[in-house]
Amino acid sequence: MLKKLLVIGALSACAFAQITVTTTIYPLYSVVKEVGGKSVKLNNLIPFGVEPHDFEPTAKSMAMLSKSDLFITSGDVMEPWSAKIINSLKIKDKTVDMSKSVKLLTHKEFKGGKVYDPHYWLSFDNYILMIKETAALLSKKDPANAKVYSSNAEAYLKKVTALQAEYQALKNCKNKKVVVNHKAFGYLANDYGITQYSISGMTPESKPSARQIAQLIEIVKKEKINTVFFEEFASDKVAKTIAKEANAKTDALRPVENITNEENSKNIGYIEIMSTNLEKLKGAMDCK
Ligand SMILES: [Zn+2]
Question: pTM (2 decimals)?
Answer without folding.
Answer: 0.92
